[in-house]
User: Fold DNA damage-regulated autophagy modulator protein 1 from Lates japonicus.
Amino acid sequence: MQGLCFLPAFLVIWSSSTFIISYLIAIFRHDVDLIFPYISDTGANPPESCIFGLMTFISACAGIVTIYARYKFVEKLSEETGMVGPCVNKTALVFGLISCVAMCIVATFQETTVTVVHDIGALLFFVSGVLYIIVQSVISYQAYPFGSSVWVCRARVTIASLAALAFFPTVICAFFVKQTTLHRDKGDQDYPFHVASAVCEWIVAFSFICFFLTYIDDFKLFTLQVKTEYQE
Assistant:
C-alpha cells in the first residue's frame, strides 16, 4: 500500500466492525431490539460490552495516529504552499484528539453502570468529532488543489454537513427519552424520540467513518519518519 493509506483504511474497517460485531452479538443474545437501538446499547451487557470496549479502544488509538498523521501532512503542505494557517490545523488536531479520548470514555464507562460519565463522554465525542470534520473540510478547500481533488473536498463538506445536521436531533431527542431500558415498546410515549435520536446517532457515527474513508488517497502522498539523535 502506498504511503500511509493503511492508517485510514484500518480505522474505517476496524471502526465499522466494532459497531457491527457488537450489534450482531447483542441481537443474537436478545440484549437489544432489532430495530434502532442506541450504539451504546449494543455494548452495554457482557460479553458484547467487553468486545465493544476493547475494539473501541483500538479504534481510538488508530484514530489518534491517523489524526496526527493528517496534522503533520497539512503542516508540511502549509510550509510549502502557505495555504493553510497553522492555527486552523492545530485546532483540528485538538478537536480530533478530544474526540478520541471521549471515545475511550464511552468504551470504558458503560451506560448501564456509570450513566452520567458515559453520556458526558458520548456528548464530547460527538461535539468534538463533528467540529473536527467541519474544520478538516475547511482545510481541504484551503489546501486545494494540493492534496485532495475538488470531488473529495465536496464529499467531505457533504459528509460534515450530514453529521452536523444529524447531531442536533441526536442530542435534542435524547433529552425527551425518559426510559433507560435496553428493550423498548412502540407504545411508549417517548418511543418516537428514541427512534429519532438513535437513527441520527448511527448517521453521525458512520459519517465519521465515511469521512476518514476520504483520507485514503491523501495518505498515499506521504510517509512519516522518526528521527533518533543521541544527546552529548
